[in-house]
Amino acid sequence: MKRKIAILGATGSVGKSTLDLVERHPERFEVVAVTAGSNASALAENARRTGAKLAVVADRSRLAELEALLAGTSCTAAAGEAALIEAASGEAELVIAAIVGCAGLRPVMAAVDAGKTVALANKEALVTAGELMTRAARESGATLLPIDSEHNAIFQCLAGNRIDDVVRIILTASGGPFRTASAETIAAATPAQACAHPNWSMGAKISVDSATMMNKGLELIEAYYLFGLPSERIDVLVHPQSVVHSLVEFVDGSVLAQLGAPDMRIPIAYALGWPERIETPAQRLDLAAIARLDFEAADLRRFPALRLAREALEAGGAAPIMLNAANEAAVAGFLAGRLRFPQIAQCVEQALSHDDYAAPRSIDDVLEIDRATRSRVEALMTERCA
Ligand code: NDP
Predict the structure, then answer these.
(1) Atom of ligand 1 nearest to the CA of 215
(2) Global pTM?
(3) What share of the chain is helix, strand, coil (3-state, %, to 5)?
């Protein structure tokens, strides 16, 4: 029997890698739904290639275009949030959550509430609603499988082990394009430089997050919710080669690591095949050719975003939501040329100083804090540009 899957964010970097794997294993998977933000033509092409029954574009103004592109096929075109939720909670058994940002939150929660197996790339959804999402998963019986390479590595290292035997987990970080750059060079970074990741090819938002190291900060929070360890037992270690994807230390002093080429198809394949493994075309690891693996501590002075994320994790409540919302808004501002690179972390720090919110009790609360924080950052950016 083929496994029915829905790919949320099918037109993005993770979405494309997922489609590549699915097409290499036609005997295993049937794509029933694909979604995109606004790119109707890429979405229609995905739907035609996979034979999906439902194609959803979030931006309603692109529905007519999507309908025209899918004319003559048996695929239904739909638009808007309710349709995204339908794609996430409908026929699929396995939902690939690869929308970027908090925009993915309601669809991911719909999949969790429906008890699906959710392969999660969309870290912002877990960062902003970790408590609510993990509780909903326990109640519905949903399984969360991490796609983020670090969390996927930890998940692999934990297989066959007890979480009670874990002393700490160590998230590796490439250090991004500015790992060795001076504070002055970092201050003058352009969007093109920030997006030029040395090891991974990814969407623009996560590439900027890697350059600020906010990505590792979001991953700290993601690890906290996925594995239930407190902040002081989640370490970050810079590892420029991106070969060791993360490590787990156990009570007996053993440290397990997962290694592989920096190719997202490896962690995605693990989630697609789980609990089995499926073949990928990823380059095989040649450790003799790599010759050395380096590790160093993260520099919180040049990369303050990592410190801010840890503070938000430890503050709890609304802080991770504010951190994420301010970061999303500031990264968009940086990519649009409205902010300089160091101002991303400054905007986040200012947003975090607003501590009027109670801990969210519903997704509506999360989205309200997200909206209010974005509008504060928008005002800050307008002030700075005035
Ligand atoms: P991309 O920017 O490449 O793709 C994002 C996807 O989300 C696209 O399909 C896009 O559609 C869709 N989308 C954008 N905005 C909306 C919206 N408002 N509503 C619905 N859909 C929307 O991102 P990535 O693939 O790089 O990243 C996706 C997620 O995976 C992120 O959370 C990222 O942090 C995480 N991740 C990514 C990794 C990577 O290697 N890329 C590694 C680990 C985690 P459209 O094409 O129409 O804009």
Answers:
(1) 34
(2) 0.97
(3) 50, 15, 35
